[in-house]
Predict the 3D structure of the following.
Amino acid sequence: MINVLANNMVYTSLGFAMAVIFFLLTIVFSLSNYRTKQGRNYSFLNEFPYELSQGVEQRFVIYLYFSQMMQALGFVLFGFYAFVDLAHYFGIILIVSWTLTALLGASIFFVKLRSMKGHIAIVACLITFTLVNAVFLGIYIFKTIYLDAPLILPIICWILAAIVAFLAINPALKRWPFMDKIEQQDGTIIILRPKFFVLAYTEWAIIFINMLLLLVGFIAYFFI
């Protein structure tokens, strides 16, 4: 039993480290290269995740895709070795949702908005599975092998679930394609993306929430 727990801890820690390191590599390198190539700063509030990867030099794109796939692999690896109590239905739901979230989270960096139906479908599924992750991770911590974990951990999960639910029902999402129109003195109209582009910042919020859930799950794991 001790050997099993030790092996699980190794793979859980490895999965967590892979997910975090490759996520940070993706963000930090992409932001730096984006600024160099585009001559301006990237905005998390009105630009999509796929635009971050598209904004870097073409020769680096393949490395960003590789980094995203490694992050997804780490996310999945963590789930398989951290959520080992599958005797309860919520454990099974969590591991399935967690795995699908990893795949969708990586694909959101690849699928462009030109494929609008595909992109929206991925975002909708990602939001749904993130909500499932938050709710059931809280239940998993509260009711299974993490009985000694601080109560604050499942509470954090459920707070994040409430945030995801709010993002999902945000009325502004229905109007996400609307652009700002600025009329020039000569009568011409310039169409600009809003400073706060609801679909773009929602996608980034979901990505960061999943990373927070990963951190909460990792902390809870050490209370086995």
